[in-house]
Amino acid sequence: MDSQPSGNNFELLFIETEEVYFSIKGNRGAAGYGESKSLTIMVEGKEHVEETSQCLYFKEYTNYEIVIERKNKTNIEFYHENTNIRNKVTPTGRGGNILSGIINFRGDIGYSDLYVKVNGNIH
Q1: What is the pTM of this model?
Q2: DSSP states of 8-21
């Protein structure tokens, strides 16, 4: 008997800054692309424009894998106002270089803010 494939193998969003790599992965069809701008990415207080992801939106009741990797020896944290989402993204590995976890917005509809903190400051 074969086991069912697991994990999220399609990269929906990738952002690279001077401090971190940030990725959201999901299964094909896990995100949608609308006709109007639905995603704003802020990096160090400035809007980070990436045309391919401007109209990307995430679906309710869908699992997404978040992977955040630091590039240097800074402290990184993940923050979301919903503790059920925030507590899912935790350090992995032995060096503390990567935060990862599976999040699900459940029935939350509308905009959602995901924050990466570098040395305690929102990045």
Answers
A1: 0.82
A2: --EEEEEEE-SSEE
Domain span including residue 51:
10-122
Written as six digits, the tokens of 97 are 């270089």
The Cα–Cα gap between 84 and 62 comes to: 14
Tell me the two tokens of residue 73.
């020896």
Give me 20's structure tokens. 């971190």
Asked, for residue 4, whether it belongs to a domain, the answer is no
Q: Could you give the count of Cα atoms lying within 13 Å of 7 in the half-sphere of its Cβ?
A: 7
Backbone angles phi, psi at 83, to 5 degrees: -65, -30
pLDDT digits (tens, 9 = 90+) for 30-88: 888 777 766 677 777 777 666 556 677 888 899 999 999 999 989 999 999 999 999 99
Q: Give how many domains the chain has, as a whole number.
A: 1
Q: 3-class DSSP state for residue 95?
A: coil
* In-domain check, residue 74: yes
